[in-house]
């Protein structure tokens, strides 16, 4: 089971009343905070972010640049050999990409 599914199962347990809502145990509070962080990570990845135009190493941005993911900074690689390749997600980290601005 992956960490997202585990966190979601815990929250479903709270919603259905199967788990105690008020916990006094420090361990359980820490686990609840961990689940919140895990789900926040998922929400952040699902929130579209604009790709970044980055200069290639050793060149200025005007001479040679490529488009990179705003989170992992990996290049957005044209795997389909299309002239206008705009994937919805980064192939490396899964970040959703926002192509609404035509600058890239």
Kindly describe this structure.
With 104 residues, the protein is mainly alpha-helical. It is 33% helix and 8% strand. It is built from two helices and two strands, in the order ααββ. Strands 1-2 form a two-stranded antiparallel sheet. Helix 1 packs across helix 2. The radius of gyration is 20 Å and the shape is elongated.
Keywords:
104 residues, mainly alpha, two-stranded antiparallel ribbon, 2 helices, 2 strands, 33% helix, elongated
Write a concise synopsis of the structure shown:
The protein has 2 helices and 2 strands; from the N terminus they run ααββ.
Detail the topology: elements first, then pairings.
Blueprint: H1 3-15, H2 26-46, E1 52-55, E2 65-68
Placed side by side, the strands forming the largest sheet appear as 1-2
Derived from helix and strand composition plus strand pairing, the structural class reads mainly alpha
Helix proportion of residues, in percent? 25-40%
Order of helices and strands: HHEE
Instruction: Give the overall average pLDDT.
Output: 77
DSSP E strands, number: 2
Number of helices: 2
Uncertain segments of ≥5 residues (pLDDT<50)? none
The fraction of residues assigned to DSSP E strands is 5-15%
Largest sheet features: 2 strands, antiparallel
Shape: elongated
C-alpha Rg, in Å? 20 Å
């Amino acid at each position: 089971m992956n960490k997202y599914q585990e966190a979601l199962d815990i929250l479903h347990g709270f919603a259905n009343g199967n788990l105690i809502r008020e916990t006094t145990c420090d361990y359980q509070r820490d686990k609840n905070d961990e689940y919140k962080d895990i789900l926040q990570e998922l929400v952040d990845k699902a929130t579209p972010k604009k790709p970044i135009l980055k200069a290639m190493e050793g060149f200025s941005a005007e001479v040679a640049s490529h488009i990179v993911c705003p989170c992992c900074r990996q290049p957005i690689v044209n795997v389909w050999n299309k002239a206008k390749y705009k994937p919805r997600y980064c192939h490396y980290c899964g970040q959703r990409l926002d192509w609404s601005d035509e600058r890239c």
